[in-house]
Amino acid sequence: MSLKPILARLLGPWLFDPAAWLYDWMTANSAWQESCANLLTPFPDGAGGGLVLDLGIGPGVSALSMGVRRPRARFVGLDISREMLKHARAGREQVGWPARRLMLVQADADHLPLADESFDAAAAHSFLYMLPDHHAALIEANRVVRHGGLAAFMEPNADRADWGWLLRQLSGRLLFSFSLWRFYNWLHGRFSPASLTAAFERAGFRKVETESALGGFGIYGWARKR
Ligand SMILES: C[S@@+](CC[C@H](N)C(=O)[O-])C[C@H]1O[C@@H](n2cnc3c(N)ncnc32)[C@H](O)[C@@H]1O
Question: How far is the CA of 13 from the centre of ligand 1 (A)?
Answer without folding.
Answer: 8
